[in-house]
């Protein structure tokens, strides 16, 4: 699963601490050439035979031209088998998603779209009546409350966002995911509930639910720390999450991962590859990857991180074919720790077969079925270990972060 990163944005959001850059001009031809070359190099090193998905992240990859997206996909298809039905997702901002641009991305090979918007409460009638279709990011506040959009540093208005969603749905019907951000400074329980109801009127079959994290060094965190904006209390955050789960499940969505809900089988193929500990190749500034370097005779899974700063990354790609800044072979224990941490995020959990792929000598039962922390968590109703494998209960998924330290400690002891 290749993950090309476009690191540029037109504006930095107030809550963002991603590896993004706002520059006066981008030499797109140079960036495109380097993305293509690095993708070819890393795919050759991995010797993967078939690609299941491609995810263009960022930054704001919709600021790139469709020609750049097409060039990267052609490079992937030239180095490995890219099936006709492979999931190809592009993250986008409403301000860079005109109907003509979206049409160009679709022609380039994109078949799944992720658009970031902001809504709260009732949507305009035109939006509620819009045809169904693609992948939308909806952050809660009033659909016409542009003040909260400004607080988050978003460069589009709510009306522009809804217009972009409608255009996207016409071009990518049935391929829409909505990202819901909750826990905004000053956000009330009622506003969140209204946002959920509004979302259900316009959403398709995939919704992601994220609690806003106030990251050190961001403008929004500084405002909260300085008292200019109120921090939401923890009990309110927990209530918002639980409310959303109940509403979405009642609306026919499967809670298939801690933050993700899908109906009609519309699970994210690409994200599942992370949670199931499959190989993935990070391409572009700051991208992360996990794969085996079979071309160099490797048999161990490597963790790789590409150079963060775009200009330095391009120099490295031009000189050596890739811009890998750090690489380390993961130990068997480190691989199992990743499998445990990621796999328990899903409602399926970790199957015996998947665990056996990483631990042929030591079964799930041998590690977590004996007296210890895992058994106590099972008795308390947080965890299940049975013929299907190891997984969280409905209650356990909501508090997974608090369960993992005990489980990791038991794994390390064994």
From TrEMBL:
Gene Ontology biological process terms, A to Z: porphyrin-containing compound biosynthetic process
Entry's Gene Ontology cellular component terms: mitochondrion
UniProt GO MF annotations: 4 iron, 4 sulfur cluster binding; catalytic activity
SMART domains to which the protein is assigned, alphabetical: Elp3
Domain Radical SAM core: from-to ranges: 1-254
CDD domains referenced in this protein's UniProt entry, alphabetically: Radical_SAM (cd01335)
Protein name, UniProt field: RSAD1 protein
PANTHER family membership: COPROPORPHYRINIGEN III OXIDASE (PTHR13932), RADICAL S-ADENOSYL METHIONINE DOMAIN-CONTAINING PROTEIN 1, MITOCHONDRIAL (PTHR13932:SF5)
InterPro entries: Coproporphyrinogen-III_oxidase, Elp3/MiaA/NifB-like_rSAM, HemN_C, rSAM, rSAM_sf
Pfam hit, one: Radical_SAM
Domain of life of the organism encoding this protein: Eukaryota
